[in-house]
Design goal:
single chain, 385 residues, alpha+beta, 2 domains, 14 helices, 12 strands, 54% helix
């Protein structure tokens, strides 16, 4: 108990230095938490993927569509339960900065294959009745202040023209990691417009969503689907939904690697800051350590004093940094809502931040502790002269 009192008193002897060190550690831990959380957010889509859903797309690239007629052939593959489809729309709402993801989907069964999208029965009925009806996520509706029945106009870019829609449903996420920032409208309305203005592009979809009965058979079913369209004008690539989502993450692999490296460098900077603080304290207190040795304090007591102060400062900075992270992340989420709808501060990230703070405290105190323990009493007393 006496050692704990001494540790606390020592940390307050140079309040400004201690305060600035805690602030430095806190800022670094906040940055570490934010970077780690942003990386976690990148992987949320793949974590929300269902094991019994496959995605079939054009083997060349997602920018190339595939014929809608493929649906009937895919349905006949053993192990396939149901098939739906979706096409990315693009389009601009008022201003290009108002970006959000928009899909034309098969309104008959798409949402049945995605139970994580919760829609009220009456809203679903209204969506099914009206050709230009739209269902949007709760987060997207809140972002623009949309309500049921509101008329929305989009200016097409991938599919040119003025597109008029009416919001008939607002879905919520059944899970915490469900994206609520997406716009869904009916593919039959989409295809009908294309037949009038660009017939050559009609009857084409961006990808098929394939529901299978046994996730363990995902690989052979995927292979069987792709074999159906070998040497066709639009060969396909079928993969699990998780693999499909991770392919988007892979496009940003270098960016993610860079973010990871920065998070480690930040911890290195914290280590240097805290090590410098502890080294200064050790130099100033050499004579004091000599005195307490003469009073009967043993090596474990000296080690406890220095390590305790270092760990105390590091852990206080770590806790403050985590609290700052909890305040910063909602602001970052608001700024990046179109790209990273949810940026969670996970238990793992908090644990890593606390563990990193503890390790930094231990490592920073290593040299000062060694020096204090090895300094002879007589040498320490000479420093008092």
């Amino acid at each position: 108990m006496k050692i704990l009192k001494l540790i606390f008193k020592n940390s307050r002897r140079h309040l400004l230095r201690t305060f600035l060190t805690i602030v430095g550690v806190a800022i670094a831990v906040t940055a570490f938490c934010v970077i780690r959380s942003a990386i976690d957010a990148w992987y949320l889509g793949s974590q929300a993927a269902s094991p019994n859903r496959l995605i079939t797309r054009n083997a060349i690239s997602l920018t190339f569509n595939i014929p809608l007629a493929y649906k009937e052939k895919i349905l006949k593959v053993p192990g396939v339960v149901d098939v739906s489809y979706a096409t990315y729309f693009g389009g601009v709402y008022i201003d290009p900065s108002n970006f959000f993801v928009k899909f034309a989907v098969d309104h008959t069964n798409y949402f049945k294959m995605y139970p994580e999208y919760v829609i009220k029965p009456e809203e679903w009925e209204a969506f099914s009745r009206e050709r230009n009806a739209v269902i949007v996520g709760r987060g997207l509706a809140d972002r623009f202040g949309w309500e049921i029945g509101e008329q929305i106009n989009l200016v097409g870019d991938i599919y040119p023209g003025d597109w008029n829609f009416v919001i008939r449903g607002i879905y919520t996420g059944a899970k915490e990691n469900t994206d609520e920032q997406t716009w869904f409208y009916r593919f039959d309305y989409h295809d009908e417009r294309l037949r009038d203005v660009s017939p050559v592009r009609a009857g084409q979809v961006g990808s098929f969503v394939v529901q299978i009965d046994d996730p363990g058979q995902a690989a052979p079913i995927s292979s069987a689907i792709d074999k159906l369209f070998v040497n066709s004008l639009a060969e396909t690539k079928t993969e699990t939904e998780e693999a499909f989502m991770l392919s988007f993450v892979a496009m940003s692999s270098q960016l993610i690697l860079g973010m990871r490296i920065i998070s480690y460098l930040i911890l290195g900077v914290v280590l240097l800051v805290l090590a410098n603080t502890m080294a200064m304290a050790a130099r100033e207190r050499i004579k004091e350590y000599a005195l307490i040795k003469t009073l009967g304090f043993r090596t474990p007591h000296i080690v406890g004093l220095i390590l305790g102060e270092s760990i105390f400062i590091a852990m206080v900075g770590g806790v403050v940094g985590i609290l700052l992270g909890l305040g910063v992340l909602p602001l970052l989420e608001t700024a990046l809502v179109a790209f990273l709808p949810k940026i969670p501060l996970t238990t793992l990230t908090i644990s890593l931040a606390l563990l990193a703070s503890l390790l930094v405290g231990l490592i920073a105190a290593a040299f000062p502790t060694f020096k204090a323990v090895k300094t002879r009493i007589v040498d320490g007393l000479r420093a008092m002269e």
